[in-house]
Amino acid sequence: MVAIGLIGLTSGAMIILATRAALAANAQVITVLRLIGATDAYIEAAFVRRFAFRTFIGAVLGTIIGAGVVALFPGEEEQAAILTGLRLSGVEWMWLVLIPPTLSSIAFSATRYAANRVLKGLT
Asked: Where are the domains of the chain?
């Protein structure tokens, strides 16, 4: 459980850094958008939507690839020299369904937080 929490925190930190970099790279565009009347909420929503969607797609693809690799591991009933008993069985496979929405919600929250802070700093 600690490992899952650390993965979530690390993912959030990476997304915050990526959001700050994207906002810094687009500072001139943001300035122009503000000049033509765009609100911070509008600009923030564009970044949040983009990062959350990309995170969801990446999490889905990563989960599919990871599930394929885990399916290749030997189960408890198989005689293997290493990695015995690591294959998921039964209901355990359902936990994989939670990965994409969980990571997307982390991305949503982290991007929103970072965009809010950066946009307030640009004012």
From this structure: 2-122
Per-residue tokens: 101: 């929405």
Dist. CA 53–CA 122, nearest whole Å: 25
pLDDT per residue over 56-83, tens digit each? 999 999 999 999 988 888 777 767 667 6
Rounded Cα gap, residues 12 and 113, in angstroms = 10
Instruction: Tell me if residue 26 falls in helix, strand or coil.
Output: coil
Residue 59: phi and psi, rounded to 5, are -70, -40
Is residue 10 classed exposed, middle or buried when 0-12, 13-18 and 19+ CB atoms within 10 A define those classes?
A: exposed
Query: Distance between CA atoms of 110 and 51, rounded to whole angstroms?
Result: 10
Letter string b/e over residues 15-50, b meaning 16 or more CB atoms within 10 A of that residue's CB: bbebbbebbeeeeeebeebbeeeeebeebbeebbee
pTM of the model: 0.77
